Amino acid sequence: MKISALPFNRQFDPKNGTPVDIAQNVVRITASNSSPYTFTGTNTYILGKNKVAIIDPGPNEGQHLLHLLNAINDREVVAIILTHTHKDHCALARRLQQKTGAPLWFGGKHRLSRPKHFLEINKLQLASDWNLTPDRLLEDGQTIKIDNIELEVIATPGHCANHLCFGIVGTPYIFTGDHVMGWNSTMVATPDGSMADYLKSLDRLIAAPYTHYFPGHGGAIKDLGEKNNGRSFAHALKTHRLMRNAQIIEAIESGADSVSQIVKQIYPDAGAKIRLAAGMIIEAHIEYLADKGRVRLQRGFGGKTRLSIPENAS
């Protein structure tokens, strides 16, 4: 089974370090931490006019801190808000807090989406800040006021357990962190993340009134009509994930009984870095399918798995 490519947009000039006005009283500054996983760098957003809030301060880079402070321009920072606690989004939080005195608002300390299995390794262990604690715990359904902007908090676990999105009430705009990005599909790696949670969270965004997505990496997914906006793109992402489930089942039915064999079938021409990332995502899909009873997952020593299709799988 072949899956149609998603309509990714990688034609994006981040203007790293430069404040870019992207909506009324919303400025984007992209850090210079480009990589295969962060694309052109992490997007930091400054919200407000007289008083401001920062969404995702980004990596712990002195130059990025200077760019943010210059853009803030001595205005009061009422909050430093995090979509989640992977370091490329939050590592600068403490230094920015020291400079501004602003409290940290986010969805709780970093935590796993499920307990680790015996001898299981969390491949995103070092990518996460396990010690950062919020001054204010943000919860699903809350609204928070920033100057003349009202934000709706939407819990979107999946990429990681404490992931949040923030919609600007009364507008089409929403900050989607790493949950939905226009340049690539989201990394979902167990036990840090959960494919079941990710799919449910996609449904939440699709049902929400926001259509113009500001992601954590890459350019905006804009409202260009009913069939070309953030919601329709989120729907396409979900369809892609469900088709990937079917592709994995087909691979197992054809004899693949391990993650590495499935990766070779689905990504035959991929390089080592792509295979590593693909393997983590495939593992998340397999766990989702096993929980649904569609795949039998036998865990062995050192995290090795053996896969098969149950006789009564539907």
SSE inventory with pairings:
Blueprint lengths: L19 E4 L2 E5 L12 E5 L3 E5 L6 H11 L3 E6 L5 H4 L2 H8 L3 E3 L29 E2 L5 E4 L2 E7 L8 E5 L4 E5 L17 H13 L4 E4 L14 H24 L5 H8 L5 H20 L4 E4 L5 E4 L6
Parallel strand pairs: 4-5, 5-6, 6-7, 11-12
Antiparallel strand pairs: 1-2, 2-3, 3-4, 8-9, 9-10, 10-11, 13-14
How large is the share of residues in beta strands? 15-25%
CATH architecture of the largest domain: 4-Layer Sandwich
Query: What quaternary form is this?
Result: single chain
In helices, the fraction of residues equals: 25-40%
**Order of the strands making up the biggest sheet:** 1-2-3-4-5-6-7
Q: Can you walk me through this structure?
A:
- Helix content is 28%, strand content 20%.
- The chain has 314 residues and is of the alpha/beta class.
- It has two domains: 20-241, 4-Layer Sandwich (Metallo-beta-lactamase, Chain A), CATH 3.60.15.10; 244-308, Arc Repressor Mutant, subunit A (Orthogonal Bundle), CATH 1.10.10.
- A seven-stranded mixed sheet has the order 1-2-3-4-5-6-7, covered by helices on one side. The protein has a five-stranded mixed sheet with strand order 8-9-10-11-12.
- A hairpin with a 5-residue loop joins strand 13 and strand 14.
- The longest helix has 24 residues, at 230-253.
- The protein is elongated.
- The model has no long low-confidence stretch (mean pLDDT 94).
